[in-house]
Model the fold of this input.
Amino acid sequence: MPIWPTTLPLPTVQGYGIRPGEAILRTEMEAGPARQRKRFTQVPTRINVRWVMRREQFALFEAWYRWQAKEGGEWFEIPLLGGIGLTTHEARFTRQFDAKLIGGVLWEIVSELEIRERPTLSADELAIALDSDLALLFTTTDRLHGLVHATLPGPHSW
Done:
């Protein structure tokens, strides 16, 4: 599976939007409340994206889009923002991108991505989060991650 090039920027916050697909089928009844049922176990989510790139980045993007993303039809891995932060998603383009020159120097690229599954807290993580201060829990886990991966020395040979 192709991977989003690390030399290209991630989508900007401006214009970024997440739109989950419909997972519930609703049937109105002649009398009484409507009935609802889950239609799918996995529902694609659409994400509006916008990138701002320099000329050489745009040249790389166009070639990557054509050859590795197969004109946008191929699934690829890309870090995207969601409720649990920046995580890697499997995505593909749902339509061709639009590119516009800004100030004669930068390119603004706008499109829409479809992701296979939106990462969320697991059922066990949800149970912990409901009993905890989630902001404090995220801060603590971020600090632990920094301690283990940035502060402590490398692996020990015990």
